[in-house]
Structure formats: structure tokens, C-alpha cells
Amino acid sequence: MEWLERVAELRQWSRHGVRAPHKPLLLLYALGRFRQDEDELKYSAVEGELKRLLAEYGPTRPTTPAYPFHHLVNDGVWEVRSELGDESPGSGVRLLRESGATGRLAPSLQGELRRRPELLWQLVQLILERHFPPSLHGELCEAVGLEEAFSPARYSFGRRQQRDPRMRELVLAAYGHQCAFCGYDGKLGGKPVGLEAAHVRWWAFEGPDSVDNGLCLCSLHHKLFDKGVLGFDAGYRILVSPVFSGGTAAAEAQVTGLAGRSLIGPRVGERAVAAGYREWHVEQVFRTAA
């Protein structure tokens, strides 16, 4: 269990639920490249791809892949060498580029991955569960070349608590089985279809399975909410990220045209989203202009 424990305990800068998934994203990327038989990653060659991953799945504030490329060494799962020697030259972008810095999974980890192929999928599942909401798992695996990893949970390790299986039912009922953004209320055989319970503050970041941390959303708006395209303000009015663009009538109707509208629900007597959870989402997920 040593490698699972090390990955579960990746040291990240953290304060009051601030997202800092730099190391998990780099490790997912490295696992994907390892599976494609690419053992060593030159910083100057992968910097662009890592930047795109951080821009799409990382924190809302500006950031650089140089930080995890250097600091992941301290967790015992990653090594960096350069023309200057067998150690990382530091976290400076220019220095990593000019020194020809190359990173790789620790040789002992590579050996274990070759001996036990299932370990790779266990590590992937662990990283996804601890750092990202379920709505993003599939596309994130695809982005790093690990499509097969996205399947019903293969492994669960060191979870802080059991998920409450009643959350979806309770949240959907609280919102009258309607999407809080668009009002969609589809049913199949009398049962809701295409509706999901979205965590406002992600479960991976201490967000509880409770009605006051949930929204009933259709599948489309759940994904956009978790990607930071949509949010809502203290008056429960819908926010649309200024970074989002769409030129069709469908994009206008489903996204940009929602700006300023009031959330639908919850029903009278049900708990609205707590202010602290809404503030976390606005600060850590919603995409503001650069």
C-alpha cells in the first residue's frame, strides 16, 4: 500500500479549502504518458500541455506548471534531472527550460507499475476521488490519455467518510425535480432523467452531502457549474463566466441568456445553499476574467 499512501498524502499548499491541484494534475499526466511508454518528460516539451490542464482543471488564479514539476520531487513519487545535475534546478520557468530539465516517475514506482498494472488504475481513481468532482472524471482521464480509468469505482482508499446515498433524492425533491438553472424537469417512466445533485462545495474539498450544499441541475448545467462556467451570487442570481463564449442560439438559450436570472427553487421550507458553500464555489471554481 506504500504508493497509494504516498499519493493520498501529496503535500499541497492549502488554506481554508483553497484548491491547489497542481501536483495531482501533473501526476495524472505522468501516469497517462507512462502508460503510453513515455518514461521521461522534458519540461520544455510538455509545458504547453500542462499549462492547458491547469487552465481547464486547476485553480482560477494564474499559475504555472513549473511549481509542481519541481516540488512533486518532495513527495517521493517524482524525479527531475537537468544538464546541471541529477537534482531539480528549481521552480523557475526559465531555469527549467534552459537547463533541459526532465521529469519522470520515481524508478521504483515505475517498476511497481510494470509488475502490478492494476496499481496505475488504483492511483488514478484515488487522485480523481480526492481532488475533482465526479462530473469531471471522464473528460479529465481522456485529457491525459487514461480513458479506460473512467469506470465505476475500481478502488476506494482512505475516504474521510461514506457518501450519503440519499443526497440525490433529497436534493432533487428539494428543488421540485427541476434544474435550478433552466427548469428542465424530464421524466422517464415517471422517474427523473437527466437530473443530478451537484455539490456546490466539492465533496473532495470537505463539502458535505447535504441539501444546503446541493443544487438540482440537468446534466449540461451540472458540467458547466463544475467547470466554472456558471455560478450564482449572494442574491441567488445566476452568473455566467466572462471567459465563456458561444455563437449559436443554443448557447445563448442554454448559457449566456441565463445571466442575471434567479435560481429556481428550492421549495418553501427547504434549505437554500449556505453562504459559505456558495462563496467557496465563486472563489475556487467560477471562472472570472483573467
UniProtKB/TrEMBL annotation:
Keywords: Endonuclease, Hydrolase, Nuclease
Annotated HNH nuclease domain residues: 166-223
Domain of life the protein comes from: Bacteria
InterPro entries noted in UniProt: DNA-SBD_ScoMcrA, HNH_nuc, PT_DNA_restrict
GO MF entries: endonuclease activity
Cell wall biogenesis/degradation is among the record's keywords: no
Annotated signal sequence range: none
The name this protein goes by in its record: HNH endonuclease
Gene source species: Streptomyces roseirectus
Taxonomic lineage of the native organism: Bacteria, Bacillati, Actinomycetota, Actinomycetes, Kitasatosporales
